[in-house]
Amino acid sequence: MTTASGDTRSRVLRVVEVREETEEAKSLVFAIPERDRELFSYRPGQFVTIRIPSDRTGSVARCHSISSCPAEERLSVTVKRVDGGYGSNWLCDNVTAGTSLEVLPPSGAFTPRSLDGDFLLIGAGSGITPLLSITKAVLRCGTGKVTLFYANRDEKSVIFRDELRELAVGHRERLTVLHWLESLQGMPHRTRLAPLLAPHVGAETYLCGPQPFMEQVRQALAEHGAADDVHVEKFTSLSGDPFTERSPTPAPASVPDSEAAGRAVSVIVGGEEHEIHWSPGSVLLDALLDEGVDVPFSCFDGECGTCRAELVQGKVRMGRAEGLTEDEVEKGAILACVTEAPDDSDPTRIVVRFP
What we know:
The chain is of the alpha/beta class.
């Protein structure tokens, strides 16, 4: 199936229910046709990208985290209004049951490899969305315990308030929910967060929320030596159009024919090793797609972090990578969509590993 946008990966999905979570947030529930169930299978913590109509640009693309878990029949995303944000306000104001939207398949690496460990999930505001998906997946399909720390302005801004209460009551032995309300406790600060988080250090930790909040949390965890192993999700507004199908990238005109094939690069995907040719001036994602290697991707602009990989060996040139933190880059993380081949004069073998 090819949609009007020309991307063979996207599908037009029908919204079957809209749930009002708070005055500022709504959940959109999609029905997935049987023929597309495999395409839209997902892991807890992932997101989908939605095409939103625009009078000025024709459309914009926005990523929204999945709030359902894979064990549920339908796929839900939750959208919170952003002050001055076109996409979130359009979805909240215009989508009703029966609305059809063009959606790309689930993406993202903010997801546990196993559901059987213990988890510390820390979120603020709409950052709860992927954390709820992980929580429900662990409780329904895993054996681990979950501590969920959730910060909000006040009680009425708590997204999924009733659902969280029901989950906590139904899973008393495995789920602990800790609420932080700024109206009662003030702004979350590392000096007050550190003792609250201390008993849970050692659990696999996932963090999602506004940047200032996440920075305070990371500083609090650092006091216990636990800041380096935190999985962080960053919300971004895509500037490009991921719904446009990519064409194979020709070698730059300035590159002699003798060098057009580029250099050999070893790429490990799902434990399987591929040897590909990477032309000078081209990005790694294009090289992989040109040779038929199936890797995750979405935005093409270094914004969403979907095509994240690890540089195991060698040197590369990476452009702007909004989808990565400075710490992640220092540890060797790259985004394939903005990483170019190095100069051929460097003889170092290049090895890249995808999750």
